[in-house]
Amino acid sequence: MSHSYYNKQWQDAQSALVDILQYENPAQPPKPERDRLAAFQLLATMYVKYIQIFRKLEQSYDQIVHPQKRRVLRHCLDGVMGRIVELKHEMMNLEFSEYHYYDDVLSDLKLTPNDVEIPIPKYFVNERAKNLKEREKLLGQILSKVGPPDQDRDKVEIHMSFEQAIRIIQIHERARQGRLRAKFMKEIRQQEEREKKALTQGAPTLDPDIAAMKIQKIWKGFSQRRKTRKDRDEEMIFIGMSSPPLPTNPRNLPQSLAARTEELRRRAQDVHEHEYQQALITIKENITQNEGPDMRENMMDEIRQWFIECRDATGKFPEFPSEEVGGSVMIFKEKDPAELEKELKEKEEGKGKSGKKGKNKKEKKEKKGKKGKKGKKGKKDDDDSEEEGWKMAPSSFVPAVNEASETYKNIWAVRSESDNFIQKHDPELIKEDKKKEVEQEIRTQVDELMRAELANLKAAVDRDKKGKKGKAGKKKKKKKKKGKKGKKGRKGKKKEKDLTSDRTIEDLFEELIVQGIIVRCPQVKMSDYEGEYSYLGTTLRQANVEPMPSLSDVRRLVTEFGILPLGSSAVHEKVPLTKSMLIAGPQGTGKKMLIHAMCTELGANLFDLSPINLVGKYPGKDGLKMLFHLIYKVGRALQPSIFYIADCERMFKKKIPKSDPTDPKRLKKELLKSLKTIKLDDRILLIGTTHCPFDAEMKPFMSCYQRVVLIPRPDYASRHLIWRKLILKFGGQFSNHLDISSLSKVTDGYTPGHMVTAVQQVLTDRRIQQLSKKPLQAVEFVAPLARLDPVYKEEEESFKSWYAKTPMGRKRAKAAQADEDDAGGKDKKGKGKKGKGKSGGKKGKKGKKKKKK
């Protein structure tokens, strides 16, 4: 793609952003929405539109090579990304559910589920590529020194004498030679039998013309069948019923060519960024050398002129503005000298006025309280009417998005780039920014010189007042210093002791690797976690049936709660803080794969805190404190970091067998305490996985894990997609003999882990070599799957009932009950009104009769 294509992408995203910002920044505050469904429709529509904008901005930021454009794009991208996460939390608080379904919104906007798939920004890893390579190299070096873990050593070590090894080799070699000899003798016997039959029967004689006709007949039939089969395959490919054949050389695929072009553009980004950084230094030096002296002289002349004007107006030299107020910037405003001096005095005496304002506020509150007591009834009605309905919470990211869109509108939307085909930096924009920067630096230097000059002038003119003013100034300064010391002392008390103050982060990192706490995770992309979109979610919710989420929903939820906030510090500091997440589901549903995908997409460190992994490591209370100190210190220094606990429900069980050597409850207290220390600037996430969450006590379990991600067994659409991907991944081929649809239907209840096991057992090296002669069939996968236990309905129901008992599930049940009660109350009120009308009519008739009598 060209530069103009990605510039057009950015332009389209900005135009869509302008439309949605008109609703985000209304002229008048919107009225509260009383209908919960209407509120959710509004949020879902905004959420979908923001995702579309996010997809365009992410693609543009990844491929645009102009360094100054990339800075504006990054600011806008982070704002939109944070807004998506904010809207997700808004929908979660409104519907009391982690999973949301908006099929109707997609159909109204004429979009497919692929159009709203959340992309993971590539800059999470690309901008830290060098650091990640160095860290991976260090990790490999340390692991090579340490050697394989104890479990692997036990598997590798096989005690066998030299004579036994020779004996085994001899047995196998003799058996091989015997098999070959037997095969050779069998072929000789078969050949002899064929020769005997030929001699007894005699050679058949045929007329040459008849023989030629038979050969022609067979050949024409074969060629016609081959041609017909080819035409049929082309027709099926044309109508989309079968996939086109892959080229022999994968490098010639359009996808591989596009990936190569994208990589070249990323290299161009690095080159242009390096040139831009050099230009910043050179242009600043030129401005300082050429325009700096003139700026300094003009500033000094203006300040001296101000001294004279103030003395003529007030009879004395003025006080020079302090650095906190802005220094000489205050002088250059167009004001009278007397007014400017008054303003400076007011700002210096602001502390006294702030105290008076506080008193006035208290008096006003007391007056309001008295008024409130008089007219309580009226105010209560007003408050109730204000509180009714749903209002959108104020956003922390909309101002950033507004700022970025204004920058685009004022600079890049109207800027001509006809002479900048290579898309290098714009020196004129650099000059504008650096001129302000140089001016500010010179102003600080000039301010210091002019303060000294003003002090000399005052000393010469007002020698008597010098001592009093100097003492008063010293006293004030001393008081301020005392206050600062006190604040520092208070902050110092809150800080915890550093148990490893004499050690470097590299040393601690190495220790954790040696102990097996920091582990190397396999390279897995989030897109490898296959799953189809759930198309019946909205329909089931409208029928008051809670649908089971699909694997696509799980992938989206992990991206929104884990990857997007941890990937960007700008998003993590403003978005609602997620400290921990629980991933629950049957065995084989891909819980660990999701964690590995998160680490790969973020370039994060993986700390394995599973009870099995900590057996015999850091014993006792002091050892446990040291362990948590190490993981949090290294995790904060090398963030983003993910703390992983497998089988986390064992930590919260009521009773644990005494024979269990892992002692899973050991971490419980320290873990809950340490979670409270995680702040907004700490990109750390605790993730626990469990396949039997119903064994744990609910209250302490949910107090530890803030978000719950439930992974169900895959539905038919997801199974169909997973079978196709797995068969291709392990070297299989599709043909008319392989019925994927029937295979997906038969394997209901089996997890992706079961499917991987079956494919690995069927598609061996020998079977792959036979595919050209013997096509793959669905029946071959049935036997391996029959040996595995699927996820039965009883287990799925137990997961559903447990999920309904979580805090979010209880809130959802209460909200559903409240909606039913409201609907029932409206029906009763409607019936009561009708009844009253009838009875009122009868009474009216009786009254009329009495009057007539």
UniProtKB/TrEMBL annotation:
Pfam families: AAA (PF00004). One of its GO terms (molecular function) is ATP hydrolysis activity. Residues 342-398, 459-499, 803-853 are annotated as: Disordered. Residues 353-378, 466-494, 828-853 have a biased composition (Basic residues). Residues 581-711 form the ATPase AAA-type core domain. The lineage of its organism: Eukaryota, Metazoa, Spiralia, Lophotrochozoa, Mollusca. Residues 342-352 have a biased composition (Basic and acidic residues). It comes from the Eukaryota. Keywords: ATP-binding, Nucleotide-binding. InterPro entries: ATPase_AAA_core (IPR003959), N-DRC_Component (IPR052267), P-loop_NTPase (IPR027417). This is ATPase AAA-type core domain-containing protein. PANTHER family: IQ MOTIF CONTAINING WITH AAA DOMAIN 1 (PTHR14690:SF0).
